[in-house]
Specification:
This protein has 432 residues and is an all-alpha fold. The chain is built from 16 helices and two strands. A hairpin with a 2-residue loop joins strand 1 and strand 2.
Amino acid sequence: MLPALVECDGYLEISIERGDMKDPELKEELYLNRESFAQTGDGRAETSAASLFFLFFKIGCTAFGGFMALISVVQDYIVKRRKLLTEEDMLDGISLATILPGPVAVNVVAYAGYRIRGPRGAFASAVGVILPSFLLLSGLSYAYFRFGQMPVAGKIFTGFIPAVAAIIFAAAWNMGVKTIKGLPEAVIALAAFGLLAGVGGFIVTLGIVAISGLLGVLLFQDVPSSSRKETPLARNGEQKRSPGGPPLRAIGAAYFGALPWAAVGKLIVTFGGMSLLLFGGGYVFIPLIQQVVVAKYGWVTRQEFIDAIALGQVTPGPILISAAFIGFKVAGFGGAAAATAAIFGPPAAVMILCTRFLDRIKGSKILRAALRGIRPAVIGMIAAAGVMVAGSSGFNAIALLTFGLSLVALLRFKVEPAWIIPVAGVVGLLLY
């Protein structure tokens, strides 16, 4: 009989129905379940959707530098510090997000939240990581359209870049130490690094994932897997809702009643439809957004669109938060919320559905071997992203010193990225 994981008083415990234990596959299954439970089971059972929201809100406040920087910060908190997921879990999520539509970083966040606390965890995590940049960009949008164009904080952003590169390299190093076990994995990681750093592009990224998965099947299918099988997730009870008082409900009803719902609906349909056509990251998506919101609908001017992208770069979180700027121009704060939900929501839902499908077939030896080949390739691609980010800062003494000190702080002293990014911004403001 197969070992089963059951919920007991909010925690997971292993119950084994005794039977014939001579089957080697059964023994391996039991070992993998026990190991996974020992490392991640208790932490998941104790992690509520609310605590995930506040954790990812904290991450979202300092996640400057693009999608790979955000993923690296998530890895630092979720895998290394909190041990809520294993390195293999995280790499599988990044691999899946790479080949699905939508913003890669937010899809990975939704994946992590779903693995830890199910659908509520996915929702809480995604909202938490997006909310800081949404609120900041909404405030900047108000100031922009009220007082005119604002200068972009270029000095602060220049200071961020080498620290962000250090965070990405630290994540790649931590993942590599635990995942790359031998020469084949090392070769796959180096090849992926060289291809992405030297050639780049979405097609190359897909090719790396496909070829490394095929190599995994050829090299590792008959090798005992060191990956851990995922345990079912514990579920918390339903949270009690505390409805707002009559004044709050009245204010909310008045506000929503005053919204231009036709414009809001058009924003939802437009950005929701475009989000499912997004493959390859936010920068690849920018020309399509410009064609629709500038040339087709005229929601913003070309200069306003450029300023929206610039503001999206200097605020934390994913660059596609620029959709909030466009939504704000069309329908105020409600339009900003609608555009943001539409650009991130549908791809995250697709990610969760595919994660559930992945869970169903993850016991396949072929799939496990393919994932073992893809994981080192993902590590190589993360390191390549670090090189590209570091190159955009210029190789001057200030940047090199910031990069070196940040890397030492991360790897040697285990300093949280939430402290490193603000300090780097201050350095940039003072020295550039």
